[in-house]
Amino acid sequence: MVRVLQTWDDGVVTDIGLAEVCRRHGAKATFCLNPGLHHDDRSFGWRRGDRDIWRLRRGELYEVYNDFEICSHSLTHPDLTALSPEALAWEIRESKRLLEEIFRRGVLGFAYPFNAADDNVREAVRVAGYRFARGVREQAEVIPSGSPWHDDFREFYPSCHFLAPDFWERYDRQRYENGVFFFWGHSYELDGKDGWREFEDRVRGISLDPQSRWSFFHELLP
């Protein structure tokens, strides 16, 4: 049996389609949001190639994500390792407060913006009341043994990005070892029909595998 985790970052409009794919196949997913970047209307985020990336409006967040696990991605997506202690605490705590207000439930997880973290950032995340965070490097061991962090805080390390060319090889390895397989990405990376079709094929394949079980991160906490 393999436990399968997936996270998606940034709260963008294309998450609507991704959430629909997950619901269609009974796939659990964790969405990592920056509540300080969502406004009353949809807002322009950035340009990627020849496409504009737009963020959802704040009033859409509950409807789009309510069936899924919610994770903080900080308030405004800065490099947390470059902030003063005061600014660091604000980014981490205020994002948690706002997300819990929007979704009316606890938010236990944190995803480091730009995958940047040091000991000060990790400790600030733990002290703010988060129970887990997404680690900053890909590795085979999603839940590392002998973690240096406190018993009340765990880091999960991704197996791969969802576009990894050896996605299925990594999945099969964890399946054989009765392990945990964790992939991550951004829904705006699903460019064109082929990207969306390939993603749905992957979600469908995992859902149909009798040796696979979709999981939320909080379900793997001690």
Portion of residues in beta strands equals: 15-25%
Terminus-to-terminus distance = 19 Å
Radius of gyration: 17 Å
The helix/strand series, from N terminus to C terminus, equals EHEEEHEHEHEEEHEHE
CATH superfamily grouping: Glycoside hydrolase/deacetylase
- Model regions low in confidence, pLDDT < 50 over at least 5 residues: none
The largest sheet is: 9 strands, parallel
What would CATH call the architecture?
A: Alpha-Beta Barrel
Top-tier CATH class: Alpha Beta
- pLDDT average, as an integer? 95
The quaternary state of the protein chains shown equals: single chain
**Number of structural units classed as domains:** 1
Work out the helicity level: 25-40%
Q: Which fold name fills CATH's third level, the topology?
A: TIM Barrel
Say how many strands there are. 11
Q: So what's the overall shape?
A: globular
| Number of helical regions | 6
Please give a structural write-up:
The longest helix is centred in the middle third of the chain and has 19 residues, at 85-103. The protein has one domain (2-220): Glycoside hydrolase/deacetylase (TIM Barrel, Alpha-Beta Barrel), CATH 3.20.20. The chain is of the alpha/beta class and 222 residues long. α3 (85-103) packs across α4. The mean pLDDT is 95. The chain contains 6 helices and 11 strands. The chain has helices at 15-24, 61-65, 85-103, 119-127, 167-176, 192-208; strands spanning 2-9, 30-33, 43-48, 51-55, 69-72, 109-111, 132-134, 154-156, 160-161, 180-185, 212-214.
